[in-house]
Amino acid sequence: MASKFPEVQGGGSLIIAWQVKSKNVLVVGGGEVAAGRILHALNADAQVTVVCPVSGLNEEVAFRVSEGQVTHIDRNFEPTDLEGADMVLCAIDDPDASTQVWRLCKEKRIPANIADVPSECDFYFGSVHRDGPLQVMVSTNGNGPKLASIVRKKIAETLPDSMGAAIDNVGKLRKKLREVAPNPQEGPKRMKWHVQRPTLISSYPN
Amino acid sequence: MASKFPEVQGGGSLIIAWQVKSKNVLVVGGGEVAAGRILHALNADAQVTVVCPVSGLNEEVAFRVSEGQVTHIDRNFEPTDLEGADMVLCAIDDPDASTQVWRLCKEKRIPANIADVPSECDFYFGSVHRDGPLQVMVSTNGNGPKLASIVRKKIAETLPDSMGAAIDNVGKLRKKLREVAPNPQEGPKRMKWHVQRPTLISSYPN
C-alpha cells in the first residue's frame, strides 16, 4: 500500500559536504590521481600534506609543493604520518601498501579513501561542478565515472553563469540580516523554520 | 602568474559519497529534521536506529518505526547509544544535549552532524536529486538552503527522465565486461586508466 511518505530508494550513497577547513588531510602518493585529490582538498581549504618520494611527484603536484600550497614529505608512507591526520586519501599503485594504510586508518578511526579499492573506502568521490559558493556533485554510485562526468558537464552548461554570483549575494544579504537581527539562541527557532517548510529537505547550512 | 594547472578555489566543501551500506547510523530525535535524515540514511542502505521518546516522533518517523524500516529506542539519548554507531545525526531542539552528543562523538571519533549547529558538524547535508543510481547533490556552502533547493529542482527539470535508466544500463554492461574479462589484480591498471583521461577528475567508483 502506498503511504503518503517518501518511499525508501536504496542503493544510494549518503552524499555529504565534509568540512575540512584547516583540517589535516594526508595524501599518500603524488601521481595524477593524487593531484585530483589534492585539488579537491585545497578547494575545501584543507591543510594538505603529501607523502611521496620527490621522484614520484607529477608536474601538478610538484607545482603545488613548490608554491607552498601543500606540505611535502619526500619519502614513502610511514605509519607515523597518520599522527594528527583528520582524513587520508591514498592514491598509490601498490595494493599491499594501500591495504596497510587502510587498516591503520581504521584502527585510528580516520576517514579514508583508497583510490580504486571500493572495499577500502569510507567514501567515494564524484564529479564536481564548482561556481563560487555553489558546488554540484554527481555520483552514479559506481555505474560509470565517465557518465558522471558527462552529467556534470550537462549540468554546468544548463546553470546560468550568474548562479554563483547570485548565491554569493544572497549569502551577503543573509549575513546582513543576522547583523540587524542577531539571535544567538535561535537554534530551536531555526529548527522550527525547517519544519514550516516541508518541501525543503536540506538543512542549514548547505 | 597563471599556471597551466587548475587554480585553487577555496571556500568549498569536500563533497563525498559516504558509504553507509549496512553501517549503523544513529539518529537522535524524531521530528521533521530527523525524518529527513532518516530518509537520507535509508536511501543509502544504512541500518538506522532512532532514539527518541515515542511522544516525540512525528508521523513520518512513527510510520518508519511501525514498518520496521528503523530500530526505535523509546527514550532520550544516553551515551551508551553510541556503542557500535558508525555515524550520528542529531536533530533535537536542545542545544545543551546536542553539544553533549557532539562531544561524545568526537571523543569516540564518530562522524557526526548536529542539525543547525554548523560548528558541531563534521559534515553538512545538501539538497539531493535522485534518479535510480544517479545522485546529484547541491551545496551552496552555507549561503542559502532555499537556493540549493531551487538549483536542485532546476537540475532535475533539465536532466532527461531516462538518465537514471541509462546509467543503470551502462552499469550492467560494465559488470558483464568484467565477467568476460575479469582481472582481480587490475588496481594499478585502472589507476593508469585514470591517468590516460586527464579530463576525468572523478575517481572510480562514483
From TrEMBL, chains A, B:
Protein's pathway: Porphyrin-containing compound metabolism; siroheme biosynthesis; sirohydrochlorin from precorrin-2: step 1/1
Keywords, ordered alphabetically: NAD, Oxidoreductase, Porphyrin biosynthesis
Region entry Disordered, spans: 182-206
Catalysed reactions, semicolon-separated: precorrin-2 + NAD(+) = sirohydrochlorin + NADH + 2 H(+)
Domain Siroheme biosynthesis protein Met8 C-terminal: 160-193
Top-rank taxon, per record: Eukaryota
InterPro entries from the UniProt entry: Met8-like (IPR028161), Met8_C (IPR028162), NAD(P)-bd_dom_sf (IPR036291), Sirohaem_synthase_central (IPR028281), Sirohaem_synthase_N (IPR006367)
Keyword Oxidoreductase attributed: yes
Segments forming domain Siroheme synthase central: 131-157
Name of protein: precorrin-2 dehydrogenase
Source organism (scientific name): Aspergillus lucknowensis
